[in-house]
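Chapter review: from sequence to fold.
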Amino acid sequence: MSTGTGDFVSYRFSTCELPERMRIPMWRERFGEGIVHAEIEPLLDVPFRAEATLCTIEGLRTLALKGSAMRFKRWRKSIVDGDDSIGIIVSSPSRSQLSQRGQEIELRAGDAIAILHSEPVTVTYLEGLQFGLAVPHDALTPRVTNIDSLTMQPISCRTEALRLLMTYLKSALKNGALAAPKLRETVVTHIQDLAALAIGECAPLGESSASAVVAARHNAALDHIATHFQDPGLSLEAVARSQGISPRYLQRLMASSGASFTGLVNELRLQQAFKLLTEPHDSAQRISDIALEIGFSDVSHFNRLFRTRFGDSPSGVRSAGRGNSCAT
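The token string follows.
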């Protein structure tokens, strides 16, 4: 199954709905031969299961894989596909084993490694979740000194650039930023910069790479706020601590987008309150309970902010919503 618009396409492959006897041959044919151009060998004598989501964006490819333990072998005969990209493989929460250029590496959970798709490689996937990012070689060459020599070197999960890269990718894919033509070029550039920084020994950090780090940190902070805005204890200090940055730096990140921390949190809470007040199944919930549920500890303060934002009181919006429901 595939979805997408323009230069952003997402594919999903799964063995879940296949008869057990067909799972391995179909996975080898459709995914192994058709997508990753590698031989696939199941490692356990148990019912095989596998699921993968592949996204392609202007030369970039992301792959999320989960399922049974298996081994991928990309031989000489496979690399005639012309793929010269650099692959970054992230192993989580289980372990992975890789072999390339005479080196054998075992990745610990959360760590990553760069490989060359233009050379034979063996990847042993030991259940759990594995994520891969492929970046065109010529996109990384200007950003990284001697990039080929930096492959097959483990990248610790504690590396800030790797953490920022994964957070940025997760947010971009989830929020659909890669599907928007006006944003795609900037987002792809940021991903390339962060990938280069994660691999290591990059050329001196220039304006483009610095911009990518700032964008990734800002994006990660916004994602944390959007997830926790209903927590009454959410504070600038708490968000900064979760991102490993200082509160002052977070303030500057927020200001760069023309928003304040308090303003953003209040807007998210008020929008959620408006949604609850206008949904018929929530009509029995008290307004004071709604205010507490979305993170306001002071109901009077909530009422004032709500009227200023929407031009009516919470009870007025609820009454209007009921009237519209009856009219239809």
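Two observations follow directly from the output. Confidence is low (pLDDT under 50) at residues 201-205. The longest strand covers residues 50-57.
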